[in-house]
Amino acid sequence: MLLTVRDAARLLGKSEQQVYRWVDDGEIPFLKVNDQIRFHRAELLEWATARKLAVAVEIFHDEDMNGKALPNLADALAAGGVYYDVEGADRQSVLRAVVKHMPLAEETDREFLLDVLLAREAMGSTGVGDGIAIPHVRNPVVLDGADTLVTLCFLDKPVEYGAIDGNPVHTIFSLVSPTIKGHLQLLAKLSWALHDQRFRDAVLRRANAQELLAEARRVESTFPNEGQSKN
Questions:
Q1: CATH H superfamily, domain 73-222
Q2: What is the rounded distance in angstroms from the CA atom of residue 197 to the CA atom of residue 22?
Q3: Strand, coil or helix: what is 34?
Q4: CA-based torsion, 55, 60, 65, 70: positive or negative
Q5: CB 50 within 8 A of CB 164
Q6: What is the pLDDT of residues 88-109, one digit of tens each?
Q7: Is 96 helix (H, G, I), strand (E, B) or coil?
Q8: Would you give the DSSP letter of residue 166?
Q9: Which residue from 75, 70, 67 is spatially nearest to 57, judged by alpha carbons?
Q10: What is the DSSP letter of 175?
Q11: pLDDT averaged over every residue in the chain
C-alpha cells in the first residue's frame, strides 16, 4: 500500500508542510498516482534511515502476521547472528559472503537471494551512511516461509558501496522476514535503533555479540506504544 502525504508525515514525525517542502525540493522519493503524491513505505524508511531521522514504529502496532506478534528486533538479531571479519573486495562479493553467513533454511536458493539483493542495489545503494548498509528484499514473497532474521556482518575491510555520504561500508545489516508487514516493521525498528546513540556506538565500535544483543533489547524497550508520540 502506498502512503499519502499525511501517512508519510506521521511515519517521519514531521508536519505535512515539511513533507511537501521535501517533495518540492526533490529531496524525498515519491510517486505521482492520478496527480496525487504517494510514497513507497520501504523507500521512505530507507530514506529516513540514511538521513538519521527517527521513524514512528508505533504506526505498525495494529498490524500482525496472521495473529502472530510482529518481529522483535533483538530476537531477529539473535536468530540472524553477528559475524566478524567477513571477507569481500566489492559490493557483489561482500553480499555473496553475507548471504552465505545468513542462517537460512537448507532449501533456500541463496544464489537467487543474492541476485535479488544485487538487483535492489542496482536501483540505488542501501548504504545509509557512517559505513553502514542495510541490504534487504523489498518484496518478502521471494522468501515466503523464511524465519525473521537480522544478520549483522562486520567486514574484514571497508568496500565502496555508493553510500549516501560517499563513505565505504564496513558494517552490513541484512534483513529477512516472511511477510511484507513484518519486513516493514523490522526495517522501521532497525531505523529507530540506528538513531539511538548507544546502539549506534556499539555497532560502530564492533562490540561483542552479547553487548549488541543487550543494546538491541534496551532499544526495543524504548519503542513507543500505540498512541504515544515519539521524542
A1: Mannitol-specific EII; Chain A (3.40.930.10)
A2: 26
A3: coil
A4: positive
A5: yes
A6: 999 999 999 999 999 988 888 8
A7: helix
A8: S
A9: 70
A10: E
A11: 85
Residues 6+ apart with CB under 8 A from 88: 94, 95, 96, 97, 155, 156, 159
Hey, what's the cell of 2?
A: 502506498
Is pLDDT above 50 for 34? yes
How would residue 41 be classed by pLDDT, with cut points 50, 70 and 90? confident
Mean pLDDT, residues 111-132: 89
Amino acid at 197: Q
Q: pLDDT higher for 159 or 1?
A: 159
Q: How far apart are CA 177 and CA 120, in angstroms?
A: 16
**All three cell numbers of 180:** 511484507
User: What does the pLDDT read at residue 65?
Assistant: 47
Q: Give residue for cell 537480522.
A: 150
Annotated catalytic residue 170: no
Which amino acid is it at 171? Answer: T
Most trustworthy range by pLDDT among 44-53, 72-81, 113-122: 72-81
Q: What stretch(es) of the chain map to CATH 3.40.930.10?
A: 73-222
This model's pTM is above 0.90: no
What's the CA gap between 83 and 75, in Å, rounded?
Answer: 16
Q: Which region, left, alpha or beta, applies to residue 174 given φ > 0 means left and ψ of -120 to 50 means alpha?
A: beta
Start-to-end Cα distance in the chain:
27
- DSSP labels, 109-124: -HHHHHHHHHHHHHHS
Catalytic residue of the set 40, 61, 101, 136:
136
C-beta of residue 80 within 8 angstroms of C-beta of residue 149? yes
CA 190 to each of CA 67, 178, 185, 195: distance values in angstroms, whole numbers, following the listed order: 22, 17, 9, 9
Residue 124 C-alpha cell reads as 540505488
